[in-house]
Amino acid sequence: MSINLVVALMPEAKPLISHFDLAAVNTRSPLPVFQRDGIRLIVSGIGAAAAAAATGYLFAQQQQRDLAWLNVGVAGHGCLAIGEGRLIHKISEHNSGRNWFPPQTLKLGVASDALNSVSRIERRYAQPQFYDMEAAAYYATACRFSSGELVQCFKIVSDNPSHPVDAVNADTARTLIGAQMKSLDRVVTALSALSDTAIKAVTEPAALDACLSRWSFTVTQQNQLYRLLQRLEILEPAPANKAPDLGHCQSATAVLAALNRQVNQLFVQP
Asked: pTM, whole model, 2 decimals?
């Protein structure tokens, strides 16, 4: 099992620490870190800068690419009931207008929703989506170290228009996350398995040589080809002698487009 959990506050972390029986790593660490059996959890603190710093710090301690990452926390929502949990299929950063779309490849029957990362606590809930302060910075940072499908967020509704954020406290966060532990355990297990497959896929993708010998790729296109073939092998493992169906392609550009379509077909549609 190989996964990093990024949590903003200790009350959110405690149910995860208890469930996975995590132990403190180093009391001299600048941030609280807990681990056991390939699961690492870091408590980042509130806000974008804190989330980005914690994510980068955790990677620096391991220096291992293609690990799974999961940001867990409570968040406001424009319409969902308190306690509802969702994976996140779209992350928007309010200040910059940037958007990210975490690929949903985990076929677990867990619903997903959109999220808006803001710089201040949201009180208006203008849209029917989640509101938090960390997800965008966390996701942008973690995607430097792992491919998008390995970087996910799971949010639980703690406040909404009928239940204002001022009523949320440490006990609320701890209880809400604890109640979603069954779903969180499934997500952690599935993400970890996906990461383990990615880490083992260190050899060249089986179809790489055949593609390079048949079509002419630029250096940039070769890098894209390698990554797409690798993602296909991770998301849908196949026998080593089974190449993607690319016989109809007339150019390197067409090959990349076809592979992109095949990868996208493996994503769970929200």
From this structure: 0.79
